[in-house]
Amino acid sequence: SGVIRISTAYNLTCDNTIIKGTGSGTGIALGGGDDFTISGCTVRDYDRGIGFGSLCADNLVVTSFNATSVSVGINSMGICNNFTMRNFYLSLDSGGYGLSHISNTDTGVLLENGVIYGCDAGLDFAYPSSYWINSTINNVTFIGTGTNIYTNTYGLYKFKGENNTIKNSNFSGLKYGIYFNATNTIIFNNTFASSGASHIYNYLTADVNSFNYTINGTNYGNSWEEFCNLSISDTNGDGYGDSGTNYPYNSTQSSKFNSSG
After folding, report:
1. What is the C-alpha separation between 140 and 239, in angstroms, rounded?
2. C-alpha–C-alpha distance, residues 72 and 135, integer Å
3. How far from 190 is each of 15, 150, 172, CA to CA, in Å?
4. Residue 203 burial (C-beta neighbours within 10 Å; 0-12, 13-18, 19+)
5. What is the pLDDT of residues 209-249, one digit of tens each?
6. Using an 8 Å Cβ cutoff, are 6 and 31 in contact?
């Protein structure tokens, strides 16, 4: 048991070591600076799994990271540009946050191949200054507990930014899948299920976002839980609806979709 504190650029490889706490504090505490790499670590029973300092740090990489029984997976106040997190599993205490205190304008963020379980907010963008640009969320699963879909639980909370991509991800058992205020966001090939209020809720009055994307001539949309109850057909057999009296799927067809684009 114990806390790992790092104050300068460092490559930390835990080799599957388990860092166990007693319910408070931070498992891995970074003091600030650029060019950190953390790999193969498991943190249990802390308030925060990883805590970044308050400075604006670039080029941070976290891979093969697990945090269980924590309130916050990553306290990301000090993250700025080129933050990458791959192959992660965050199991949160009641009221927990996957990434909290996102407070800077961050460019080039990549979250890929991960699970955030039991979240009040998978990603918390409550700070007015939080903003992502040219960033990607790919193959990340955001799961509520299944009993809290009518309380304030979010996959992405107050997600703000521009020119971002959310793809190949799953949002289930949450009140809101994506609750956002963003422009030029491409959202495709995701699955939305068991949302208590909305799969998508954009509180920006005039949002410009896309929920379809074309790759090598093939169109990709998203999977919506109530799709089977709508009159939408797949005429070309590519797995996505492209015609019908309820096509396209939008806020007119479902109360759980509140966005244009």
Report:
1. 21
2. 21
3. 32, 21, 11
4. exposed
5. 788 778 887 777 888 876 666 667 777 766 666 667 766 66
6. yes
Q: What are the residues facing 13 on neighbouring strands?
A: 39
Residue type, position 141, single letter: T
pLDDT beneath 50: ranges in the chain: 1
Amino acid identity of 189?
A: N
pLDDT at site 77: 77
CB burial readout 135-159, b (16+ within 10 A) else e: bbbbbbbbbbeeebbeeebbbbbbb
CA atoms within 13 A on the CB side of 261: 25
pLDDT value at position 156? Answer: 92
Backbone angles phi, psi at 229, to 5 degrees: -90, 0
HSE-CB at 56 with a 13 A cutoff on CA atoms is 9
Contact partners, residue 128, CB within 8 Å, separation at least 6: none
pLDDT at position 64 is 96
CB-based contact 173:145 (threshold 8 Å): yes
